[in-house]
């Protein structure tokens, strides 16, 4: 894309990595996959407490499921619910043959060990891909259910024909839901991977070395144009509600001037996280159907 500014200097504008467009293409394929299943997949979202941001995320997920004709139910539990009772509830959902996918919305209230909860979910119904059996398979390079945001980033790059093999991919952030699984997926696709975090020395140097830069650090507009090498492909995972509306971890305006491609916030990675959740749900239903044959 080109831009003709008043000063007459021709500048190349970054390609916008439009997550909605990619998500729509994934939904088209999913509808076909669902039509081949013996029953309509059902998702159960477990929401403990009344964190307003979590309530919004859960509504977005169940609304999308309904739009696609998938079944979903939200189990809302009080913040006083005990860890033991939550494990029992999850075991009940594991045994329920009518439930294909289970998602426990994070964060959980204080006093509940999220690892205990994640480990209680059946790995075959684990649509968030956080059970150690699923993260272990991903680390082996033999993934089954993959964390949604990480899977979404790969789909975004694939859709826009961004080759990953042999590239220097720099990931800022090492969380279990984003940074680590993204790093595993990039390794699987033969990138040369650098993972940065809060103890990384000279972060700017690492960022400047990237050919593909994934930013998942939870710091509004942290990465600015001056830090990024010309031609870098930049994927912004961050989401922050500010007075100026939703912003990412990347300062879009300055980075878009140097990047060859960039994902916007909103409309970049966000729609793909939900699309991948729906894909994981359908995949979990396919796994169940295969195990019955
Ligand atoms: P997180 O668990 O808080 O992890 C943040 C990571 O960034 C940590 O590894 C941390 O390092 C690193 N970090 C923080 N400050 C840093 C700094 N100054 N320099 C270098 N590294 C730094 O966050 P998350 O769950 O991965 O989420 C990251 C962002 O993505 C958040 O804004 C979140 O809201 C957003 N998000 C969006 C979606 C979506 O669908 N678009 C999905 C998930 C998350 P340490 O490990 O050393 O602490």
Question: How would you describe this protein?
Answer:
The protein has 293 residues and is α/β, with parallel strands linked by helices. It has two domains: 37-128, Rossmann fold; 147-271, NAD(P)-binding Rossmann-like Domain (Rossmann fold). It is 41% helix and 17% strand. It contains ten helices and 13 strands. The protein has helices at residues 19-35, 52-67, 83-95, 114-120, 132-140, 148-159, 179-188, 203-208, 252-256, 269-292, and strands at 2-3, 11-12, 15-16, 42-48, 71-77, 101-104, 168-172, 192-196, 212-215, 233-236, 240-242, 245-247, 261-262. α2 (52-67) links the parallel β4 and β5. α1 runs parallel beside α10 (269-292). The site of NADP nicotinamide-adenine-dinucleotide phosphate (NAP) has 24 residues, from α10.
The CATH class of the largest domain, by name, is Alpha Beta
Which molecules other than protein and nucleic acid are bound? NADP nicotinamide-adenine-dinucleotide phosphate
Main sheet strand line-up: 3-13-10-9-7-8
Fourth CATH level, the homologous superfamily of the largest domain = NAD(P)-binding Rossmann-like Domain
Helix and strand sequence: EEEHEHEHEHHHEHEHEEEEHEH
Content of β-strand: 15-25%
Radius of gyration (CA) equals 20 Å
What best-fitting shape do the alpha-carbon axes yield?
Answer: globular
> How would you classify the helix and strand content by structural class?
alpha/beta
> Uncertain spans, ≥5 residues at pLDDT below 50?
none
First-residue to last-residue Cα separation: 50 Å
Largest sheet descriptor = 6 strands, parallel
């Amino acid at each position: 894309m080109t831009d003709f500014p008043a000063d007459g200097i021709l500048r190349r504008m970054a390609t916008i990595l439009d997550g909605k467009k990619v998500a729509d293409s994934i939904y088209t394929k999913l509808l076909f996959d669902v039509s081949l299943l013996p029953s309509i997949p059902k998702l159960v979202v477990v929401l403990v407490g009344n964190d307003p941001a979590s309530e919004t995320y859960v509504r977005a997920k169940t609304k999308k499921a309904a739009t696609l004709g998938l079944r979903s139910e939200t189990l809302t539990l009080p913040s006083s619910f005990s860890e033991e009772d939550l494990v029992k509830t999850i075991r009940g959902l594991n045994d329920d043959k009518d439930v294909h996918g289970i998602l426990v919305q994070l964060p959980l209230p204080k006093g509940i060990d999220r690892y205990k909860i994640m480990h209680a979910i059946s790995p075959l119904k684990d649509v968030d891909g956080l059970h150690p059996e699923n993260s272990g398979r991903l680390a082996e390079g033999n993934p089954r259910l993959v964390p949604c945001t990480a899977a979404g980033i790969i789909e975004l790059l694939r859709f826009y024909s961004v080759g990953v093999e042999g590239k220097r991919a720099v990931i800022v952030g090492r969380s279990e839901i984003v940074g680590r699984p993204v790093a595993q997926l990039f390794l699987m696709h033969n990138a040369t991977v650098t993972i940065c975090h809060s103890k990384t020395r000279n972060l700017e140097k690492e960022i400047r070395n990237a050919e593909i830069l994934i930013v998942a650090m939870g710091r509004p507009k942290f990465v600015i144009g001056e830090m990024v090498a010309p031609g870098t492909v930049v994927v912004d995972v961050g989401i922050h509600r500010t007075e100026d509306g939703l912003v990412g971890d990347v300062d879009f305006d300055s980075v878009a001037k140097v990047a060859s491609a960039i994902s916007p916030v909103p409309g970049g990675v966000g729609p793909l996280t939900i699309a991948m959740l729906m894909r994981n749900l359908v995949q979990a239903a396919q796994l169940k159907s295969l195990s019955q044959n």
